[in-house]
Design goal:
With about 375 residues, this protein is an all-alpha fold. The protein contains 17 helices and no strands.
Length: about 375
């Protein structure tokens, strides 16, 4: 919807003070407006006439209307449609105009189905609307007057591309749920008849029993290693669970195999060795660092469990010895700073432990900071 480029609101062949006539080809037949009886249509006609009078008397600057009216009205229609969660923009425009203009004035102003398509900015062979009365009626229907409409026009004049991009409707992407193989198997088994279900149950049981006879250490977790094993596991656990629990019970509560115990012990020994090495390297190369459990356990397998205190007794004991609390960390900091200060001046107060002892929290940190600053300033 737009005011036609190179065409003023006045008729191109009319007088300077334009007064639409019954034969006006751009304004349509206006004489029937005088017989309108609908209250909403009468109010709308009066307001539209006043808005047209504002233009004719020069109270409204129409210089920017040619390039901005269409995009602004289209953006308004899109905002209304987005608020209603709809995408049929020309229907939204039709409903909005008919609601504001009334049932009698809408057809008298020449609004038809094709006009609403042009009103939403869809490209047509006729191009945007150039009828001044229809443009003014659309502005009043969507904005309620000149004030809000002119604000939007001025906003678009600043950066048209950004304005149009902000109101652009993003496409809806409907993502279909993937066809899960377990759901496919469930649908397949539920569609089985009694004979098919019995036949597949015998096939599943025979496959499991054959492998169990072949391997005495066979467990239910190894069913998936059989040919088509995942499907067999799904069927046995969902449709033949009683037989599975009887012939291949769970291993929960049974003592672990000696090989498993030995493997876990070796793993714990490697973790303790890594923690101790990291502690010693930190004390040697970065004594100012505060050593925490998280730092000692970083990049070790299952570190989150050990951070919660769920490790073995040996590892927990080692962590308690190596991890810093405030007392151990502060003692190491005092020893570090005083040793550096004695190298600069043995008689300085920063070389005495009493300068730092007895403080805690921010006061202790402030003393350390001042001591390190003095060392840096007086170091040769």
């Amino acid at each position: 919807m737009n005011l036609c480029r190179r065409r003023d609101v006045s008729h191109r062949r009319g007088r300077k003070a334009w007064h639409p006539r019954e034969q006006c080809p751009r304004g349509g037949a206006l004489q029937p407006i005088g017989v309108v009886t609908n209250h909403d249509s009468l109010e709308a006609a009066v307001v539209i006439a006043k808005m047209a009078q504002d233009i004719l008397q020069g109270r409204i600057d129409t210089s920017a209307f040619a390039d901005n009216t269409g995009p602004v009205l289209r953006a308004k229609v899109r905002r209304i449609a987005q608020a209603l969660d709809r995408r049929d923009y020309h229907h939204v425009a039709q409903e909005q105009l008919e609601f504001r203009l009334g049932t009698e004035l809408t057809p008298l102003l020449g609004f038809a189905a094709h006009t609403f398509v042009r009103a939403t900015g869809h490209p047509t062979s006729e191009g945007p609307l150039s009828n001044p009365v229809q443009n003014i009626a659309a502005i009043w229907s969507l904005f309620g007057g000149w004030h809000d409409f002119l604000d939007e026009v001025n906003a678009r004049k600043v950066n048209p591309k950004r304005y149009d991009l902000e109101v652009q409707t993003r496409p809806k992407r409907v993502r279909l749920n993937p066809d899960n193989k377990f759901e496919r198997w469930r649908r397949q088994f539920e569609q089985f008849g009694a004979i098919e279900m019995k036949r597949y149950r015998q096939h599943c049981r025979s496959a499991i029993l054959a492998e169990q006879a072949r391997s005495p250490t066979f467990t239910r977790s190894k069913i998936r290693d059989l040919p088509d094993g995942q499907k067999l596991t799904f069927f046995a656990t969902h449709y033949d669970r009683q037989w599975l629990n009887k012939n291949l019970p769970r291993q929960t509560g049974k003592p672990a195999l000696p090989s498993v115990v030995a493997r876990e012990q070796r793993r714990e020994a490697r973790k303790r060795e890594l923690v101790l090495r990291r502690y010693e390297d930190t004390i040697r190369h970065d004594p100012g660092r505060r050593i925490t459990r998280a730092f000692l356990l970083s990049e070790t397998g299952g570190e989150s469990a050990y951070k919660r205190g769920m490790g073995t007794a040996e590892l927990e004991s080692l962590l308690d010895q190596c991890a810093d609390d405030f007392e151990t960390w502060s003692k190491r900091q005092i020893e570090l700073v005083t040793s550096l200060a004695r190298k600069v001046d043995e008689k300085s107060k920063w070389a005495a432990r009493e300068t730092y002892e007895g403080f805690s929290g921010n006061a202790f940190s402030d003393r350390l900071r001042r001591g390190k600053a003095w060392i840096e300033k007086n170091r040769d």
